[in-house]
């Protein structure tokens, strides 16, 4: 009888711990792994970072220069179930592969901003955008020739990778709805094999 009570106690404790962990990684903070070269030189492939989920939880518009995780499938509605299913802990426990729709990019434009692309330089609201974080400012982005000027719609942000020559971003998929901004990078970790 004592063994059964102990097993029940441990089972309840584990269930509570797992539920709290899932809630934390879904709505508060989550470790993530950088995949690809689109954010070089700022972040390298296989770096580990911490993502604050609070901006997404409270529908906050990220600031200029924030490095954010986005859901690149912008024509599909976000739901609470998708938030849980894409959390790293849920994917790890269920054995799912990494979510390929989650991209790490830098916020270049906020709602109402007018962005112009001239001679491989970005202008925001008529002002030259200084971007010391770019990998190679002399390499032309792949699609700037099609896109010379745009206004970021309300409820959206415009994001780009720091490695402009090797980045799928808003130049390809358009401005990102705020509810598709899943979190903001707050810390880069060295040597943490999580994600």
Automatic annotation (TrEMBL):
Membrane topology, as annotated: Single-pass type II membrane protein
GO BP annotations listed: signal peptide processing
Major localization listed first in the record, in broad terms: membrane
GO molecular function, a single term: serine-type endopeptidase activity
CDD domains per record: S26_SPase_I
Active site (catalytic residues): 38, 105
Ranges annotated as spanning the membrane: 7-29
Keywords on record: Hydrolase, Membrane, Protease, Transmembrane, Transmembrane helix
Segments forming domain Peptidase S26: 8-188
Domain of life the protein comes from: Bacteria
EC number: 3.4.21.89
Pfam families: Peptidase_S26
Catalytic activity line of the entry: Cleavage of hydrophobic, N-terminal signal or leader sequences from secreted and periplasmic proteins
GO cellular component, one term: plasma membrane
Localization (cell): Cell membrane; Membrane
Protein family membership: Belongs to the peptidase S26 family.
Name used for this protein in its record: Signal peptidase I
Organism: Melghirimyces thermohalophilus
């Amino acid at each position: 009888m004592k063994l059964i009570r102990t097993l029940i106690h441990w089972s309840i404790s584990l269930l509570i711990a797992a539920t709290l962990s899932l809630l934390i990684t879904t709505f508060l903070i989550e470790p993530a792994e950088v995949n690809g070269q689109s954010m070089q030189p700022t972040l390298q492939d296989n770096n580990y970072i911490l993502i604050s989920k609070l901006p997404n939880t409270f529908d906050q518009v990220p600031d200029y220069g924030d490095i954010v995780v986005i859901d690149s499938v912008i024509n599909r509605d976000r739901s609470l179930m998708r938030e849980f299913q894409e959390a790293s802990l849920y994917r790890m426990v269920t054995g799912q592969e990494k979510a390929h729709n989650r991209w790490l990019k830098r916020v270049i434009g906020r709602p109402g901003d007018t962005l112009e692309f001239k001679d491989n330089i970005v202008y925001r609201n008529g002002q030259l955008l200084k971007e010391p974080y770019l990998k190679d400012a002399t390499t032309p982005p792949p699609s700037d020739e099609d896109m010379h000027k745009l206004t970021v719609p309300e409820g959206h942000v415009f994001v780009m990778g720091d490695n402009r020559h090797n980045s799928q971003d808003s130049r390809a998929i358009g401005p990102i709805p705020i509810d598709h901004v899943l979190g903001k990078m707050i810390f880069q970790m060295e040597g943490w094999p999580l994600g």
